[in-house]
């Protein structure tokens, strides 16, 4: 760390009439406004220095930027607040698009494959993507069961069955379902981004807290009582 020294030296006039004549040192007087301004600035620095770094880290883990604001670093706080807002806005957008596509491909399947969307599982919608008809699915299940010498795991009844109107409609359904899946995946990535943002915010606020502990100010007032060279020396030492 490098010390930065600012020294103000005030020399008082001396009226000397002889070796035995006494002299009195005049007191240092600051104007009221300047004195108050110096006092406020010193209290502000002391308050910032003694704020708890651990509390700031917990705050930033809860909401990135909160701990930075607590330590007085508005620029860092704005950055992490902005990143957090962008991450959750993106997640909301991807989840919204996911739900749009899910509603769209279910309605599309009802119209072009003759299915009843009510109460269907995610596996059902995936099977519509993988098999052109429910008969194709059932035949695949029976074939796998014969190879393993076991009963089929699941077969669809006629009420649950489907048949796509054309290969083109089937491919369109496949595209819509893939878009829903991609948006769901990106929404999941945003959770990871939010966790990374918290980790970076905690590291950043720990660095800010350490910097504030190391940056200190000291005020020294020295009175020179030598009658031959009276004076007052006011020193402000700031280390960072």
Keywords:
240 residues, mainly alpha, three-stranded antiparallel sheet
Q: Roughly what percent helix?
A: 55-70%
Radius of gyration: 38 Å
What is the H/E string? EHHHHHHHEE
Q: What gap, in angstroms, lies between the N and C termini? A: 6 Å
Mean pLDDT: 79
| Number of helical segments with 4 or more residues | 7
Globular, elongated, flat, extended or rod-shaped: what is the shape? Answer: elongated
Characterize the main sheet: 3 strands, antiparallel
Task: Furnish the topology, listing elements before pairings.
Layout: E1 3-10, H1 32-49, H2 53-62, H3 66-70, H4 74-112, H5 122-130, H6 134-147, H7 167-214, E2 216-224, E3 231-239
Antiparallel strand pairs: 1-3, 2-3
Helix pairs in contact: 2-7, 4-7, 5-7
Structural account:
With 240 residues, the protein is mainly α. The protein is 60% helix and 11% strand. The chain has helices spanning 32-49, 53-62, 66-70, 74-112, 122-130, 134-147, 167-214, and strands at 3-10, 216-224, 231-239. The protein has a three-stranded antiparallel sheet with strand order 1-3-2. The protein starts with a strand and ends with a strand. Mean pLDDT is 79; it is low at 1-46.
């Amino acid at each position: 760390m490098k010390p930065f020294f600012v020294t103000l030296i005030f020399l008082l006039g001396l009226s000397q009439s002889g070796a035995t004549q006494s002299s009195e040192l005049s007191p240092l007087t600051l104007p009221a406004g300047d004195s108050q301004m110096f006092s406020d600035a010193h209290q502000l620095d002391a308050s910032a220095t003694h704020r708890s770094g651990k509390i700031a880290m917990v705050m930033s883990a809860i909401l990135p930027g909160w701990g930075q604001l607590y330590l007085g670093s508005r620029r860092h706080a704005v950055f992490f607040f902005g990143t957090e807002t962008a991450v959750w806005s993106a997640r909301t957008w991807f989840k919204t698009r996911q739900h749009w596509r899910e509603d769209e491909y279910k309605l599309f399947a009802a119209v072009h494959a003759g299915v009843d969307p009510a109460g269907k599982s995610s596996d059902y919608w995936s099977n519509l993507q993988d098999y052109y008809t429910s008969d194709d699915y059932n035949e695949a299940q029976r074939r796998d069961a014969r190879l393993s010498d076991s009963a089929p795991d699941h077969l669809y009844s006629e009420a649950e069955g489907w048949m796509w109107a054309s290969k083109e409609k089937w491919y369109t359904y496949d595209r819509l379902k893939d878009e829903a899946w991609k948006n769901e995946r990106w929404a999941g990535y945003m959770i990871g981004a939010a966790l990374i943002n918290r980790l970076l915010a905690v590291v950043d606020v720990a660095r800010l807290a350490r910097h504030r502990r190391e940056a200190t100010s000291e005020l020294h007032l020295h009175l020179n009582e030598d009658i031959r060279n009276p004076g007052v020396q006011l020193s402000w030492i700031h280390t960072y």
